[in-house]
């Protein structure tokens, strides 16, 4: 099974993915976390501007799909955290994996810009930085299996994880 967690930068993909994997590993040690930033670093593709263009983002999404497919074919469950602005990739995922569940973390750009943990949005909104999804690269909200509003921090993130795992039938 592949759980594909998507959303704009700062929406909480990695935070949710890490929490989900930590809880899931209490009953199944074989769950793997695949994170877009980590994969980009593994391929030494995180320092160039090209890595963040539409073509660079598509290349990273293709790497992540193949990595997830490889793990899935071996019977390893995967939680994948990726921005993935590509509707065609997300649609194809539904037939690529043994089981696919998409979670969309939704937060308005104004909220994400206020958080701006990676210092992406302020320079992009001033026109000083390019290739920021949600600013100058379009992001069409997906038709996900589950949409979570992350504009405000959840009052009980543990309950959210329990709910997701229950819905997936793994707890």
**What share of residues is helical?**
40-55%
> What CATH first level would be assigned?
Alpha Beta
Domain module count: 1
Strand content: 5-15%
Mean pLDDT: 91
Q: Main beta sheet, described?
A: 5 strands, parallel
How many extended strands?
Answer: 5
Instruction: Write down the Rg.
Output: 16 Å
**CATH superfamily membership, which one?**
P-loop containing nucleotide triphosphate hydrolases
Span between termini: 14 Å
Low-confidence stretches: none
Q: Strands of the biggest beta sheet: in what spatial order?
A: 2-3-1-4-5
* Backbone shape: globular
Task: Give the number of helices.
Answer: 7
Order of helices and strands: EHEHHEHEHHEH
Structural class computed from helices and strand pairing: alpha/beta
CATH topology: Rossmann fold
Description:
The structure is a single chain. With 171 residues, the chain is α/β, with parallel strands linked by helices. It has one domain (2-165): P-loop containing nucleotide triphosphate hydrolases (Rossmann fold), CATH 3.40.50.300. The protein is built from seven helices and five strands, in the order βαβααβαβααβα. The chain has a five-stranded parallel beta sheet, sandwiched between helices.
